[in-house]
Specification:
With 129 residues, this protein is mostly helical. The protein has one domain. The chain has four helices and two strands. Strand 1 and strand 2 form a beta hairpin. Helix 1 packs across helix 3, helix 2 packs across helix 3 and helix 3 crosses helix 4. The longest helix is centred in the middle third of the chain and has 17 residues. It is globular and about 35 Å long. It starts with 10 loop residues before the first strand and ends in an 8-residue tail after the last helix. Bound molecules: zinc ion. The site of zinc ion has 3 residues, from helix 1.
Length: 129
């Protein structure tokens, strides 16, 4: 765990190392985005591990599937946010579904079941029977 030195980011992943800011190291601080059921430490750690999985474990074709999905999501929206589409936005689409799938909790359209199916559609079948 290393200080993230005043950047707006909660954590980071670079060169195989996941960083978390001291703020996220407080395991008692709940994450409202996940209904306060999980700590910001847990969700931020999984988020950054999600970057690691996207960058190091997904094949180029799996990354392409995620990017296509992301572009479709942007097309379906009212407006495209400034700076999008981006690699960061593509990774965050993957990560949002991954974290909800791993936690078994998410709000629609990222319920746990929908998220598991989406992750499987990206070619990562983590819940194979
Ligand atoms: Zn991120």
């Amino acid at each position: 765990m290393l200080p993230t030195r005043g950047t707006a980011r909660l954590g980071g992943f670079l060169n195989g190392i996941v960083r978390l800011s001291a703020l996220e190291a407080d395991v008692r601080r709940p994450d409202a985005e996940y209904g306060n059921r999980f700590s910001l430490f847990t969700t931020t750690t999984l988020h950054e591990i999600g970057h690691a999985i996207f960058e190091t474990a997904l094949s180029a074709s799996q990354q392409d599937i995620v990017m296509s999905d992301y572009l479709e999501t942007l097309d379906a929206g009212v407006s495209v946010p400034a700076g999008e589409p981006s690699d960061q936005g593509t990774q965050h689409l993957f990560i949002d579904f991954l974290v909800s799938a791993l936690l078994g909790y998410g709000r629609p359209p990222r319920s746990a079941g929908a998220s598991r199916r989406r992750i499987a559609a990206f070619g990562l079948d983590l819940w194979r029977q």
